[in-house]
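re the bet — no i am not wrong, look at it urself. input seq straight from the record:
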Amino acid sequence: MLWSTAIIVLLILTFTAWLVVPIVANSSAGSSGQPLGVEGYPSSVSATGDDGRTRTLSVTLENPQGRGLDHLVSGDRLVVRGQGYDPDKGIYVAVCAIPNQLDTKPGPCLGGVPSTEVLDQPGVAAIEFAPSNWVNDDWAWRLFGARSFDDRDQGSFSAYIEVGEDPESGVDCAVDACGLYTRNDHTALDDRVQDLYVPVLFVK
């Protein structure tokens, strides 16, 4: 009985260390290479980061009805595609306030961090058309609701964002400068290399 308990404790400690050590040991890979100011409201942006990766972020309205990303209304759904991202690092995808200084973590973000509810079916990419999405290829994080990358070799992913007002965030994207952002998740919070954004504007 004592041996069984010891083995279970050892397995738990090993699993915890496997999750925590990469977070603690993570170091910044530098800047994403995207300038702070993006002109207009393009549907796609690209930048080459300090890690040598060229990332592309594309955003389209599910039902544009003649509107662009500068005329979003509550309930609009955005289809987000990314390519060139580092699949060894998880990312959050959300609408966030654009910071005033380069290489500053974007935020606050609408909808907060994505849900980490444990899924009944491990690995199922169940987060769709939510205020924010979480993409992480590690199987352990997928148990907690993360979507996996579409193609690791291409560093590509898909995300599905439903925009809406979020008074608790303190951000009003009809007034404040906002963008649909990707940024590293909690496993590399201080690493700005995957901070890429497409500007968006809400209308009342």
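see?? Helices lie at 2-25, 139-142. told u. also Residues 116-127 have pLDDT under 50 and may be disordered. so pay up
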